[in-house]
Design a protein that fits this description.
This protein is α+β, with helices and mostly antiparallel strands. The chain has helices spanning about 1-15, 60-70, 75, 115-130, and strands spanning about 40-45, 45-50, 90-95, 100-105, 140-145, 150-155. Strands 3-4-5-6 form a four-stranded mixed sheet. Helix 2 runs antiparallel to helix 4. The radius of gyration is 23 Å and the shape is globular.
Amino acid sequence: MLGAVLTVLGTGLVGCGVQPTGVIEAGAPASGLTRGMRLYYASDTGLRAVPVLDRDFTSLDAVMKLLAQGPTAAERREGLTTLLHAPAGYTVTGDGARVTVELEGPYWAEARDRVTGQLVCTLASFQSVAEAEVRADDVEVTIRPGEGPALGPLRCAGYLGG
């Protein structure tokens, strides 16, 4: 019965000029950061975004403090952790697609470390929410330690993918 229905439907489609085709390649799936506030935590497989739905943030400083507090108990059970420890003194400012982290002391990680990725991706996520015309993929984060060279500008895309 089902075969007969499909044959009739197929015949009808061919009669209307619709020709059968093979598999059509459409390219790679969409990628990049999604809209909405997310905290980025470390896992065994790389960075993972966790949506923040129940809290409002008014500043980049508040987001950095929340990231340093680490994931919830449920998120920890899923294998997530934070590598970021809140520095003693810092200021975070955002202007358009640029975010700057000013540290009073040295920065303890390298530019390509996952801890830096957590910081860059989380701040980019917040900045794109705070300034709606800015895409998270376009946000550049610069880390300026009180001692040593500045890191950046850094984009989140450099840390995603494993």
